[in-house]
Model the fold of this input.
Amino acid sequence: MKIESYGYVDHYVIPDSTLVQCALMIDFPFSEPGLQRFSDQLNAINLTGIKLMETNYPMFLRAALPEAEFTRVKGELDLMGRYRKFPDELARSIAIADVKLSWDSVTKSYVSTGLIGVASVGKVQVNKYIKGIVEFSRKRNGDEFTIYLELNQNEWFFFNYRNKIMNAFSSDLTFNDILREAAQSGAEQKRVKNLAKGYMYSLGTERKKRDFLRKFEQEETE
Done:
């Protein structure tokens, strides 16, 4: 599991709060058909588009690409808002171009506010703002990262990483079936083990997603 962040941190002495505005590049071994299904579902929904060059995403481009290649892809994004061909150097499991995180003293974690701008999944361009929650929390027995994306009231995806285990679950039954089959595939488990020793991914549960959302619902009512 690797996370790269590009952006700015603002700390306000009064009222003692911290706001992070950044792009997040999240990379982890995962089922390739699973990521394809995930990106297909994101692209099937009509949502507000992202102007990538108006976010912190260009910081990632400068870090990941040679100067000449950066200039070329910048021109494509300025002109069309998309790449003609997705650069291999930019491929990440989930690339978030725009997210705002603030410190939540109740959950003791950094939690996103507002829509989440997803740039790409793997090598598939998405470039859409999606309703959801991103959370980073530090715990005694292992830091935790969670991302929940809600395409509409009935369609959602949930990823949770803790102690070298990535759990994923969705309202999309095909996505869940892909992960279930991957867990039973010796070849896939061997591939993942070769990529990251000690790491594994598996099919999560709806209960974990429900418990995750409930703590924010309780906070809103308090």
